[in-house]
TrEMBL record:
InterPro entries cross-referenced by the UniProt entry: Kinesin-like_fam, Kinesin_motor_CS, Kinesin_motor_dom, Kinesin_motor_dom_sf, P-loop_NTPase
GO biological process: microtubule-based movement
Protein name: Kinesin-like protein
Organism superkingdom: Eukaryota
Protein's organism: Molossus molossus
Lineage, broadest ranks: Eukaryota, Metazoa, Chordata, Craniata, Vertebrata
Amino acid sequence: MVTGQLLALLAWIRSPRGRQALPQGTQPASGLQPPTPAGVTAQEESPSPLPRGEVQGQQLEEDQRAWQQLEELILGQLEELKQQLDLQEEGLGRLHLGVGATDSEKRVQHLTLEKEALKQCLIFTGELLKHCSPGFSTRAPQEEAEALVELQGQLREAQNATEALQVQLGVQEVQLQGLRGALRQLQQETEQSCRRELQQVHRQLAGLRARMASLRQGCGDLRGLVSTFTQSCQGSLNEARGQVSWALGALSVSEAGPQLPEKQQGPPPGCPGRILELKGNIRVLCRLRPGTPSSLVSSEPGLDGSVTTCYRGHRRRFRLDWVFPPDASQEEVFRELEPAVLSCLRGYSVCIFTYGQTGTGKTYSMEGPPEDPGIAPRALQSLFREMRTGGQHQVTLSMVEIYNEAVRDLLAPGPPERLAVRQGPAGQGGIQVAGLTYWDVPNLETLHQMLSLGRSNRATAATAMNQHSSRSHALVTLTLQAASSTRGSGTTGTLHLVDLAGSERAWKAGGVCRARGDPDDAQRLREARTINRSLLALGGVMTALRSRRAHVPFRDSQLTRLLQPALGPGATAVLLLQISTRPEDLGETVCSLKFAERVGQVELGPARRRRARRSGTPSSLSTDTPLTGTPCTPTPSPGSPPSPGPDSGSSSALVPQEDLLS
Ligand code: ADP
Ligand code: MG
């Protein structure tokens, strides 16, 4: 029964009447319009335009297809239900025939319940059909179409807007890419310009640094020049003062009546020795050793003399301050040096050193044989003679040798000891020789005794050049301290007498040694090399002084260290060059003359007097003196001649050092 009803329903729905009775959304696109509640047709109410009709037609076709699918589905379900109902009705009929009333009733109740359930299902299906069907929409198709068109319009607008936005987006993306490129280029340009500027700044900085370094250098040089100039001025001033006071003294004595001894009046004007006294400088004198005359070495003796050599086909003339011919006597040589020696009594520092090849007469000129004494004995004699007639002086003596760069005390009470040479305290200049012995010398006899003691302590050794020549530098220092007088403060003068070791080139001495198979070959060679180095250092110092460099390499050797005060500003230095005229010595002779030529160009500025402190002890030494002793150095009592024994220093007194006043 149910099935029949359902089938009837479907048949009705599918019939034209049922379709017309169904809501409008379910109408097929056949152009038939369902009747409105007011009985007015849709055509009468709003004549729809053709394009909208076409759209609606397509939509309706789609709806119809969906509807047909749904309908087929429901029909299938209904068909199944119908079959189930048929089966149940058959079963019920069988039950009515063969089973008891009670069971049948139960069965009937059960089936009834099932039937009710199927009814409910059917109702639900109907409802479902209603809801699923587009015909149940409350809106009219016209409105739907309009809404649809409106929606389509909106959709189109939205699409247009989207397209426009996409175009804009594309444009902006292109712009963005352009901007990014420009930014990248800007960054690169900025980076490059920054790098360039940085490099330029670096270059400028390097230039500034170099400029600063050169300015510093210039500043140092300027300081050195100013210092040299100041010292030079001071020296000139002191010299002028000394000359004025000397002139006044001489005037007062001449006015008083008796004439001064010739020696006290100083050298006569025009005497070459006076140049040494007044100018105060490095003077180079040359003495030719006696021997067979050679045409390869000739000389023009006297003031501003010259030596001409002919070596390896080259003729060369060397100008010197004074040239002594081979037959010049010891007396003649000393006469030229005496004014400088005596200037020590007035507070000047004087350094006389002999330079030359071994065997050319350095020691002969400096010491000389007893029967014909050289510069040192004559100088000491002259000084003591002058002191007898002059004022009170305290004379102190020290003597060292430099052998293989070791400084040895030649006047030590015991065996010669190696001494340490140190730089003096900051600001005071000079050097100190710790543990050096120095003696107060009361008279000439004592002085001679001490000098012979020192000579005997000096290291000597045979070389290929000269069996008896000294292979060490010997330095004798005499300090003369004048007591203060009513006319002025006391002065401290220093006389350095330096007998240098042979200047011949090391290869020559060593080569001959080797040829002779000398067992002390290595030792001799070492000696020769050390001597050569120290003389080279002396040449370096001279060159630095000549070019007025701020730094003078005094520290390059012990010799130059010890000679530092003797070669300082205001000092008088005399280089006595000894040369040989023998043809086989010609190479060394030329070398020595070249060295002398270099030294001769050095200027130390005008001679300068040094004044001692009024409160200074008579036996004190200046720190500016090369051979400076330590305060605990033994000093023999005045009047007691020193002896080489260890006890000789027992009566010594502690001698403090004193600063130099200039
Ligand atoms: P150096 O010290 O330069 O090595 P020396 O002074 O020992 O040379 O002299 C070497 C030798 O030459 C010595 O025997 C010395 O007497 C002699 N002699 C040097 N110069 C003269 C001179 N002017 N008159 C006489 N003999 C001299
Ligand atoms: Mg000698």
